[in-house]
Amino acid sequence: MDAFRYLGLRTAPFEGRPDPSFFFAAGNQDEALAALRYAVHTSKSCAAVIGESGFGKTLIARMLAERV
Questions:
Q1: Which of 3, 13, 42, 53 sees the fewest Cβ atoms within 10 Å?
Q2: What would the pLDDT profile of 25-56 be if each residue is shown by its tens digit?
Q3: How far, CA to CA in Å, does 22 sit from each of 39, 46, 47, 57?
């Protein structure tokens, strides 16, 4: 049995590109997503998310693209 199925997941969480369905709204990531959504909805000309490797920047960008 696959470990992800043992944990109750339908698909493996770390396969290839980041998958927004596995997003967990922790403090910094949730704040970054909210700031980007605000920037889009208020037509700001520039917004940036800066963080260390593994922070979830690509995942946040994919989530923003799906929601806008």
A1: 53
A2: 777 888 888 999 999 999 999 999 898 888 88
A3: 24, 27, 24, 14
